[in-house]
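Deliverable D2.4 — example input (structure tokens):
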């Protein structure tokens, strides 16, 4: 029996495309393979594009219009579709494309030939009426200097040696590629398939390069042909003069992004040496002729840390090679080794990023999504979309009763988990490429030896920009006393996406609801007191800090009392000597109170800063000595809160900013 045909989505992104979109859509809707859906995502067109699409959509239920309020570019528009659908295959269609009736059926048949084929591309020609048309593209070639070029552009069909059957090519032009869904999800970096920093230029080069790095095939189907009258090539200086300064700067910026992100480590130096003459000429041209393109270099200077972090993720994934599909029979195991528990609440887009970051599930891993949402079922829909291609026996979704809080959700996750170990992946955090692989290799190499394993983590802001890396230099085990001392001295020691703990150990200890927003620190302290912790240097996850969440409301006497109760519990265990426990308590509360005062002053709220500093007068805090390292900060913040001066620049401000970020976001 032949394999069933995959489900198909056609994604079209428009921007002032009224002159071509109707012909494009009529050719799309006339395909002989008629079982598909079409999404047209419009980027705030000011012409009749939306009206034309809406008129056709009224006559064909397969066609759907999604009008965005702003221009998100080629990358943002297609990501909008890819993030909200789950078809087996996706055909990207430029609005100036015209398809022959058999095009979709032809490329789908090619996609089914080999699971390793991630992309299928046909021959794009500039006329369908001529017997020997001019070729627009037949895939792309990769050049030694990090660029890609259209194969056979501008040549007649009769002049080129096209093979009769399939041909592997270096890449696919973005005008009409057919992508496998598993390929799309594999190439995502921090949740994005297309890197939205590219906006609308060279993003197909980026996908083609990553495809090669990850071991996927891109094949040309020479018998599949479509019309594409291309109007612009970046190397054409006459056409370039007509472009906006933003488009010109993007072209410069995106080439540099490619060179920074994608060359393999052993090819990085050689690729840059080959690219240097051209890049030097581009820089000189920008200095002398096209000065607004210098914005590209300014952008990279401001964002080089984020770009380098992306490179690290891409290269880590590339080191794994191609991931074969997981067979359904492989997922049938008695008990998973790891349960990835994902508590969520009304943030479906962030939830999708978290779930996609997990990647293909090994047979001994399960996912448990525990949803506290009450207003709608968007998180449930997103879960089912994103996990549709994971083995059904390896993931479960639960909708919790109204009124459940974060502590309830955590307890429910522990109750529902089947794995011997549990990883809590909050919906606003995500795993790094190779993160799950690293975790599983560590667990499998020493099963059940450790009750707690703490990996490295990258701290990122809401825009996924790396703020710092939190890791140890070498793997080592902290005995209970040392582990408790560290967690009670440094409240940011444990970041959720980096903590893997024994399910049974967590269940036996349980969460203490009376600790409220300090219940995580309380659990880790008790877990470490009982079992210690293995510190693993590899970074496996990203922990997201939210500026909006950094309020001063938690810096009050009840929170201090709850934190003091954790120290009382540790005192009762006897795991730390009295002097070590007193030293940890002293540093902890100075960090905590000074970080809160700093946050209040950043918000220009001097009364709140004075209230927070007054916590030092609480009886159990007043008896604590002021460590020498914290005395200057305490004196400075006290003076600033009383005199109304602005926060100073320099070392004091930098120190307090670091402490406030580390402490505030961990409670």
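Example output (designed residues):
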């Amino acid at each position: 029996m032949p394999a069933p045909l995959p489900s198909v989505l056609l994604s079209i992104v428009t921007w002032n495309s009224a002159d071509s979109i109707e012909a494009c859509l009529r050719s799309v809707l006339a395909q002989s393979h008629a079982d598909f859906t079409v999404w047209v995502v419009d980027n705030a067109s000011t012409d009749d594009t939306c009206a034309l699409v809406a008129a056709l959509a009224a006559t064909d239920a397969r066609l759907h219009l999604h009008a965005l309020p702003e221009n998100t570019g080629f990358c943002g528009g297609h990501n909008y579709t890819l993030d909200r659908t789950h078809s087996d295959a996706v055909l990207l269609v430029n609005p100036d494309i015209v398809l022959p009736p058999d095009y979709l059926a032809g490329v789908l048949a090619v996609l089914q030939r080999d699971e390793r084929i991630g992309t299928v591309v046909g021959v794009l020609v500039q006329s369908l009426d001529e017997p020997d048309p001019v070729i627009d593209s037949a895939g792309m070639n990769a050049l030694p200097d990090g660029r890609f070029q259209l194969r056979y552009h501008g040549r007649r069909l009769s002049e080129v040696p096209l093979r009769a059957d399939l041909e592997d090519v270096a890449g696919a032009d973005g005008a009409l590629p057919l992508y496998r869904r598993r390929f799309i999800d594999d190439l995502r970096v921090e949740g994005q398939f297309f890197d939205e920093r590219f906006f609308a230029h060279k993003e197909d080069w980026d996908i083609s390069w990553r495809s090669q790095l990850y071991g996927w095939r891109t094949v040309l189907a020479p018998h599949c042909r479509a019309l594409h009258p291309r109007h612009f090539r970046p190397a054409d200086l006459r056409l370039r003069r007509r472009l906006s300064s933003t488009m010109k700067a993007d072209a410069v910026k995106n080439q540099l992004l490619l060179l920074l992100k994608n060359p393999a480590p052993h090819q990085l130096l050689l690729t840059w040496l080959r690219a240097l003459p051209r890049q030097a000429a581009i820089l000189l041209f920008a200095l002398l002729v096209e000065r607004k393109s210098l914005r590209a270099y300014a952008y990279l200077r401001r964002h080089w840390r984020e770009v380098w972090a992306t490179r690290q993720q891409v290269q880590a994934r590339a080191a794994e090679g191609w991931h074969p599909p997981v067979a359904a029979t492989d997922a049938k195991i008695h008990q998973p080794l790891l349960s990835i528990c994902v508590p969520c609440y009304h943030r479906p887009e962030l939830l999708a990023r978290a779930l996609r970051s997990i990647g293909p599930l090994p047979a001994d891993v399960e996912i448990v999504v525990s949803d506290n949402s009450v207003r709608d079922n968007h998180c449930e829909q997103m879960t089912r979309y994103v996990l549709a291609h994971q083995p059904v026996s390896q993931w479960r979704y639960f909708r919790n009763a109204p009124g459940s809080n974060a502590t309830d959700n955590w307890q429910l996750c522990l109750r529902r988990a089947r794995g011997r170990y549990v990883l809590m992946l909050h919906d606003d955090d995500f795993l790094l490429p190779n993160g799950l692989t690293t975790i599983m290799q560590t667990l499998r190499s020493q099963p059940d030896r450790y009750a707690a394993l703490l990996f490295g983590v990258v701290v990122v802001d809401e825009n996924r920009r790396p703020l710092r890396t939190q890791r140890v230099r070498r793997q080592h085990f902290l005995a209970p006393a040392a582990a408790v001392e560290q967690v009670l001295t440094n409240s940011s020691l444990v970041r959720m996406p980096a903590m893997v703990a024994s399910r049974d150990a967590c269940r036996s200890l349980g969460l203490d609801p009376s600790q409220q927003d300090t219940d995580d620190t309380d659990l880790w302290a008790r877990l470490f007191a009982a079992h210690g912790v293995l510190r693993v240097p590899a970074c496996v996850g990203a922990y997201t800090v939210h500026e909006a969440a950094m309020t001063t409301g938690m810096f009050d006497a009840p929170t201090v009392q709850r934190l003091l109760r954790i120290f009382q519990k540790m005192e009762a265990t006897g795991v730390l000597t009295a002097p070590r426990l007193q030293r940890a308590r002293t540093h902890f509360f100075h960090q905590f109170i000074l970080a809160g005062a700093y946050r209040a002053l950043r918000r220009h709220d001097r009364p709140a800063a004075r209230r927070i500093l007054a916590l030092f007068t609480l009886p159990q805090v007043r008896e604590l000595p002021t460590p020498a390292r914290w005395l200057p900060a305490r004196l400075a913040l006290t003076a600033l809160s009383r005199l109304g001066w602005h926060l100073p620049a320099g070392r004091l401000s930098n120190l307090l900013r670091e402490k406030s970020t580390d402490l505030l976001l961990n409670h």
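Confidence is low (pLDDT under 50) at residues 328-333, 657-667.
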